[in-house]
Amino acid sequence: MIKIENISKSFDGVSVLENLNLYIRENEFLTLLGPSGCGKTTLLRILGGFEEPDTGRILFEGKDISLLAPNKRPLNTVFQKDTLFYHMSVADNIAFGLKIKGQTKSYIQDKVHYALHLVGLDGFGERFPDSLSGGQAQRIQIARAIVNEPKVLLLDEPLSALDLKLRQDMQYELIRLKEELGITFIYVTHDQEEALTMSDTIVVMNGGRIQQIGTPEDIYNEPQNAFVADFIGDGNIFDAIMIRDRLVQLLGAEFECVDTGFGEMNPVDVIIRPEDVELVSPEEGTITGVVTSVIFKGVHYEMDVLAHNYHWMAHSTKMAPEGSPVGIRIDPFNIQVMHKPIREDQETLVNE
Predict the structure, then answer these.
(1) Full-model pTM
(2) Which of 18, 178, 271, 319 could form a disulfide with 235 if both were Cys (CB 3.0 to 4.6 A apart)?
(3) 3-class DSSP state for residue 231?
(4) pLDDT given for residue 146 in this prediction
């Protein structure tokens, strides 16, 4: 549906996006994920028509829309900041775009009723925005956007101001809306949980460049570089040596793995997720260490294990007491080997 070609953008001589290319499919829930300043919101604003790129173009169903005004584009934007009109009722807020388009009164009434029902706020039409909770106000903003029947909905961190429980509830509401409406969602966030929960496709960005594109499972289980590995979820990240295919050395110990094609005796990065760190008796482990802290997280224990001068993070439903000696064993399939970064913006946040 959307093709982003060679988009670059800078502000006051500082590059924000660098020759970025991206395809977005119809009916896809695509999330732009990355730290503050990575360029994700700038890209969304360029898509929405609120910023002009320095170079490149945006194609929508084959048509160049790069120079179209925001109201001429077949998409709507839901901003992070509350943009409701507080002197208008909820119904009038939702109907605003339809009135500008000159739709009939009966058509507008039907659409407003439908939009309120979709976001679960039937009967709220006569209320005013100052009587709404944060979650309700955000739903009204979404209703105002979808009532215009856009082909694409752009969402710029719309849940960031909500508390944890409400944010989680709204994540599922957005998934439901996407499925029910059958439109394309492009979502901006720095919250990895939001991205993993809602997305069909995640685009991880840093330094104005795309680091990796993939499904949530691919991004989490098969990160392509240390930046992605560190930004998505918790992880133990190591400088390592690929001894040969299926054998890697880290912290002075050799671990079997399943990766091939990295050469022999080459430096690589390795990530091992905390849930993949098996704590066993010392004699059963590839390396040994001592548990230095234990935190109960509800569904698992988070343990810090000092082994070979590295603090390993381990998640397990079985608790090893603080101070106890343990062995560390890793299934070869749970060792993810990655190429060393070729650019500074791919460096892991830990090392920065």
Answers:
(1) 0.84
(2) 271
(3) helix
(4) 82
- Nearest-angstrom CA–CA distance, 19 and 186: 20
Instruction: Report whether 270 contacts 282 (CB < 8 A).
Output: no
* Structure tokens belonging to residue 255: 């671990």
Domains of the chain: 2-221 (3.40.50.300), 235-342 (2.40.50.140)
The total number of residues written for the chain in this structure:
352
* Whole-angstrom distance, CA of residue 312 vs CA of residue 57: 46
pLDDT per residue over 63-85, tens digit each? 999 999 998 898 988 887 778 89
The sign one gets for the Cα dihedral 197, 199, 201, 202 is negative
| Secondary structure (DSSP) of 58-116 | EEETTEE-TTS-GGGSSEEEE-SS----TTS-HHHHHHHHHHHTT--HHHHHHHHHHHH
> How many angstroms separate the CA atoms of 314 and 275, rounded?
6
